[in-house]
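Write out this protein's structure.
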Amino acid sequence: MTPPPHSDLCLRNKNEIPGLGPPGSILPVATATRHGVLPAGHTSNLTCTAADRRSGPPGDDGPEVCVHPAGQMQLSVHPSRGLVDEKFTVLVQKAPPGFQLTLHALHKCDDGHSWEAFAHYCTSAAGTVNVSEDPSLGGTYSGVEQMGLLWSLRPVPGSRPWIRFRKVNAQTPMVFTISVYAGHQTEGFVGLVPLAGVEVERWYVAPGVQRIPVTEDGLSAALYLPPGPGPFPGVLDLWGGGGKLVEYRAALLASHGFASLTLDYLTPKVTLETGKMVGNDYFEKAYRVLQQHPQVLGSRIAMIGLSFGTSMILKMAAYSEVMKLKCAVCISGSHVQPVDGSISELMSFLVDNVSKIRITDDNQVIWKDLVLPIPMDPTLKVDVGRLQCPLLLVVGEDDMNWAACESAADMKDMMQQAGNSHLLTVLQYPNAGHLIEPPYTPFTRASFYKPAGVDEKMIALWGGETVAHAHAQEDSWRKILKFLRKNLYGVTDSRL
């Protein structure tokens, strides 16, 4: 088998190697070196060309070596290691002028599923491609999109349907393999030989960030502390209706200087043992734990939440005598809920309205109508006119899971009537969906979802359009950090 034209230095695998293909298959040098087929540094004297493939010295059972006309092409990613919300620059150099190529990104998630993205480019007269400046001509994204190779990732062909990209272990990096291929390729990357490739690490935890499990007072939580002695402002982080302890946003917030406590409030140990939902005092206990930590500024605590988590944030911010928040961030949420009671009462309210759920022809569930129309009854929505701290609402206009847009409009009216609308900021994004996450998280329009307390999975329609949603994630995260810094640190940075 002759390798494709313009391939980089590549190696013919003479022996069966598990995971690397049968004898006679072609391996890129980086892969061969990593798996011990070729010792590191062994390529320094290999100078053969595409027309001059050769084996090693007589009697040498080592690899067969091939070098091709574009073999001097260079691919670099800078920085190759950084936080997940940090942009990188992908640069191709020393390619022939006007050379058609495909940039490809591949990542294997913690759950074992692989995701890929690719984009088509044509090199400049100088033989370069700079992804930060040059437009993609096609692929999983088009145009000038510096981070398109991440946010346009999608499950590789043959993957299980309806999966969602999520980081399970926030303390380990996400490793992406960025490769360049000759021509404009659209499929079958696993069988192609790249011209060059590099590995890129993206982290939720910055160097020095500490993770501390929290189980006191019956809590199921994890505290992430920024590097240094502190004390730091605190953030209490609540996720949505799926339950479990989700840690990656708290880890990233700690990497930006906030002591962040992420809390499992739907499936904590106490609920699993007793079968009973936690009460409002559970959130007050979490607040006190954060407030009393020696590395936390107890008078500067905020809350941030997504979806169902925003319901508890708004309730506690408005009615708790214990939780005196400096500010709150609510992403894709609603204030509609029974004012009296806690989680179990809210769950019962939603169950009572289950007939409002819509199911698409593709069997995807639309939940947003559960709280529509927005009730006029004041006992069925949080009185946000009581809020005394700044509130940031982040809303996707194509949210199919929760009535975030309608709720934001009603909250704005309520706060205007109460005279505290100066505390409200609304970020509203056309064509963005429900799952507004940290930047460059791959877009998921619909995925399997199992609400806490429900035995069967369903396909939840989250909504959104890929490009608009990606831009909403990037813009909203920058503004969330700015909001938190302003209200917790008293810092206003015009660059943000």
